Amino acid sequence: MPVESGSSAAAARQAKQKRKSHSLSIRRTNSTEQERSGLQRDMLEGQQDSKLPLSLRTNLLDLFSQIEKEFENLYIENLELRREMETLNERLSADGQTAEGADLAKGALKTKASHSTSQLSQKLKTTYKASTSKIVSSFKATTSRAVCQLVREYVGHRDGIWDLSVSRTQPVVLGTASADHSAMLWSIETGKCLLRYAGHQGSVNSIKFHPTEQMALTASGDQTAHIWRYMVQLPTPPPAADVTQTPSEDDVDSSDKDEADGEAEGPSDCPSLRVASTTLRSHQGVVIAADWLVGGKQAVTASWDRAANLYDVETSELVHSLTGHDQELTHCCTHPTQRLVVTSSRDTTFRLWDFRDPSIHSVNVFQGHTDTVTSAVFTAGDNVVSGSDDRTVKVWDLKNMRSPIATIRTDSAVNRVSVSVTQRIIALPHDNRQVRLFDMGGVRLARLPQSNRTGHRRMVCCSAWCEEDATGCNLFTCGFDRQAIGWSINVAALLQEK
Question: Please, which pLDDT band fits residue 134 given cuts at 50, 70 and 90?
Answer without folding.
Answer: very low
